[in-house]
């Protein structure tokens, strides 16, 4: 009996003893008690072939996992949904017969749901986590769901291990702690003992795990699909969402403070901008590989723990999604939205990616328990815009009123209708692929390199991203109580970069790592956030004003900020009218109490004072220090220089002093557009 079971025993405890079990030091079995010889790989036709339906162990394991939570999603529980449209840039008929991609300018309504993965519905928007990025296209041929994440890879190669991953990263079962984070023993124990996670964990420790805004993060399909054109020609394809505003992130210290001030920050920011007409936009891109080139890379293109380097396989931009309407009812739309990578249209097909094969089973199974039965497709948010006709009947939540006596195929009473559609009539025809091999629970040797791409990711990053990763590892592993697990993780990530592992080991008082990193010198500059598109739209500026502030030129600054799409709040010791030196009046809508520096993308210091001069200076200094510490813009008017001098901030990159440049407002806009100024040295 462990410590948490000690204490006074009750009759209820004795009653439950019959049901308690300790799995330690036992052999793995199915729920029927059958001992299993393999729990790493699904049963497939050949080591790179499709998963077989007769795999009872996979089906039992995944079915049980999909039904573990009622009614909240097991993963991706905290999500935010928005309506919009997708517009094709050009015809893609040479590559796919998907109708929504067949014509330049063709528009398709969409619903997108962005989510964290680990936390429960009531958790914060800004944990260190992967973000789900799911888009439902309501096409003329039926619904197409593009279901991915904000990182191009995943932790595992085979979906049979997904329940294990989530069990490990979720709060530990004895105390339901910690919430919405992997900074605990079981997750890092899983990582150290399942080293295929290395690439994804590197991305998870990077700034990508803390997006500044949902509109400033990428989206990826992760899995490998196929495009098939009208001639029956197929290409392997992966999908990308490229944010028009670029890719930007929080610092870890900043994210924790934002969470404390506004745990709904990301969803509030997106909701507010859509209401204001600042619609978030992403361009859709595809990477395509000819079938003849399937084996021409130093990684397996079906391995979901590997990304396709854009320098080797270019991204072709084919359209743009604009999210332009918030939901009317969160539950009816966002919470009841049901996505599934198996919801495809003619021209889009599957590969033998073993993670994808598992998802094709799991998603429908999940909706059955979460939405109460097989008719979840009839809920308004999930209902296709085109009519649907089949012989399915009854069940929980049925809304269709079917007329007639016939609900079977084949029939003569209804002239054998509804009848299958030929390929020429738009009927879906699966791509014909030759499949052969022995039934095995194994994985191709081409899946066994777990560190080369993780090393390439590290090689490709800017210095600030590398420092972020070291600090993230130090925080996360520093929370692990088991010293053996700590050391295992240090030794594992020495395979990625020994110096990185050495730095983390020093920070958490672990032994220096064993071994050295893999010899892999390739880079993929596209994975770095350092050179993404920078636009100032939707940025937020805080303007600190006290009685007697410097209003000279502030009107021009506000005009330039507004023209650039930057919103501004006046912040003071109290709300209401604050009078400046020259008669300029500012309406303070925020105070040092109602807001925080971390909720803004930069500050403008206009000076002045308050009734309690010392308290005003202390509050202003705290705002300035946090803004400067997090590499953001600090603008200083002539009257604000005294307040700035009393802070810990110093002149340098991203600090815009009035009078130092000809156009103070223009310089501020350019600085806000850059967002972070990592060239600052502390």
From TrEMBL:
Transmembrane segments: none annotated. Pfam families: Catalase, Catalase-rel, Catalase_C. GO terms for molecular function: catalase activity. Keywords: Heme, Hydrogen peroxide, Iron, Metal-binding, Oxidoreductase, Peroxidase. It catalyses: 2 H2O2 = O2 + 2 H2O. CDD domains: GATase1_catalase (cd03132). Residues 1-48 are annotated as: Disordered. Residues 1-26 have a biased composition (Basic and acidic residues). SUPFAM superfamilies: Class I glutamine amidotransferase-like, Heme-dependent catalase-like. Residues 29-417 form the Catalase core domain. Its EC number is 1.11.1.6. PROSITE patterns: CATALASE_1 (PS00437), CATALASE_2 (PS00438), CATALASE_3 (PS51402). It is an enzyme of class 1 (oxidoreductase). Its cofactor is heme. Belongs to the catalase family. HPII subfamily. Decomposes hydrogen peroxide into water and oxygen; serves to protect cells from the toxic effects of hydrogen peroxide. This is Catalase. It comes from Bhargavaea changchunensis. The lineage of its organism: Bacteria, Bacillati, Bacillota, Bacilli, Bacillales.
């Amino acid at each position: 009996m462990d410590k948490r079971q000690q204490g006074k025993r009750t009759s209820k405890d004795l009653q439950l003893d019959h049901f308690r079990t300790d799995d330690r030091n036992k052999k793995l079995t199915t729920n029927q008690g059958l001992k299993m010889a393999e729990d790493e790989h699904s049963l497939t036709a050949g080591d790179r072939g499709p998963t077989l339906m007769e795999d009872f162990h996979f089906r039992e394991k995944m079915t049980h996992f999909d039904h573990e939570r009622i009614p909240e999603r097991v993963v991706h529980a905290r999500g935010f949904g928005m309506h919009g449209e997708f517009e094709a840039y050009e015809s893609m008929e040479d590559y796919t017969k998907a109708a929504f991609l067949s014509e330049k300018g063709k528009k398709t309504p969409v619903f997108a749901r962005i989510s964290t993965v680990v936390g429960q519905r009531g958790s914060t928007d800004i944990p260190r986590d992967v973000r789900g990025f799911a888009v439902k296209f309501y096409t003329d041929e039926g619904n197409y769901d593009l279901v991915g994440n904000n990182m191009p890879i995943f932790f595992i190669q085979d979906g049979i291990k997904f329940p294990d991953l989530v069990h490990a990263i979720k709060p530990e079962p004895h105390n339901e702690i910690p919430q919405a984070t992997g900074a605990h023993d079981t997750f890092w124990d899983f990582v150290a003992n399942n080293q295929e996670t290395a690439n994804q964990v590197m991305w998870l420790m990077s700034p990508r795990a803390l997006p500044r805004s949902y509109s400033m993060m990428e989206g990826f399909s992760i899995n490998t699909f196929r495009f098939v054109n009208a001639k029956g020609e197929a290409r392997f394809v992966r999908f990308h969402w490229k944010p028009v505003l670029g890719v930007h992130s929080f610092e870890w210290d900043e994210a924790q403070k934002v969470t404390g001030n506004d745990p709904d920050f990301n969803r509030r920011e997106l909701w507010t901008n859509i209401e204001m007409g600042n619609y978030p936009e992403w361009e859709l891109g595809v990477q395509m590989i000819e079938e003849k080139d399937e084996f021409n890379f130093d990684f397996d293109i079906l391995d979901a723990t590997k990304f396709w380097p854009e320098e080797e396989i270019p991204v072709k931009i084919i359209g743009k999604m604009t999210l332009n309407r918030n939901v009317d009812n969160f539950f009816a739309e966002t919470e009841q939205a049901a996505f599934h990578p198996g919801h495809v249209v003619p021209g889009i097909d599957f590969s033998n990616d073993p993670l994808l094969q598992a998802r094709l089973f799991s998603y429908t199974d999940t909706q059955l328990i979460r939405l109460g039965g097989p008719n979840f497709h009839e809920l308004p948010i999930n209902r296709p815009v085109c009519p649907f006709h089949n012989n399915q009947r009854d069940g929980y939540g049925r809304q269709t009123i079917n007329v007639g006596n016939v609900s079977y195929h084949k029939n003569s009473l209804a002239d054998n209708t509804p009848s299958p559609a030929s390929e020429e009539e738009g009927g879906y025809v699966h791509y014909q692929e030759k499949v052969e091999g022995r039934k095995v629970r194994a994985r191709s040797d081409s899946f066994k390199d777990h560190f080369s791409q993780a090393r390439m990711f590290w090689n490709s990053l800017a210095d600030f991203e590398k420092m972020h990763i070291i600090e993230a590892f130090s925080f996360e592993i520093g929370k692990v109580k088991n010293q053996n697990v700590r050391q295992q993780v240090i030794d594992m990530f020495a395979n990625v970069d020994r110096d990185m592992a050495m730095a983390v080991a020093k920070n958490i008082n672990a032994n220096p790592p064993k071994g050295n990193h893999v010899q892999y010198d390739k880079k993929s500059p596209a994975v770095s956030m350092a050179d993404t598109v920078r636009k100032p739209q939707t940025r937020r500026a805080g303007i600190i004003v006290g009685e007697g502030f410097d209003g000279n030129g502030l009107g021009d600054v506000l005009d330039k900020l507004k023209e650039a799409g930057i919103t501004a709040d006046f912040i003071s010791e109290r709300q209401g009218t604050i009078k400046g030196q020259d008669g300029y009046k500012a309406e303070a809508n925020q105070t040092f109490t109602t807001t925080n520096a971390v909720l803004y993308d930069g500050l403008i210091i206009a000076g002045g004072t308050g009734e309690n001069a010392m308290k005003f200076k202390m509050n202003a200094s705290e705002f300035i220090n946090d803004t400067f510490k997090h590499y953001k813009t600090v603008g200083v008017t002539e009257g604000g220089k005294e307040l700035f001098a009393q802070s810990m901030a110093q002149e340098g990159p991203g600090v815009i002093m009035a009078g130092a440049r000809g156009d103070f407002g223009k310089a501020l806009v350019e600085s806000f557009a850059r967002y972070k100024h990592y060239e600052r040295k502390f």
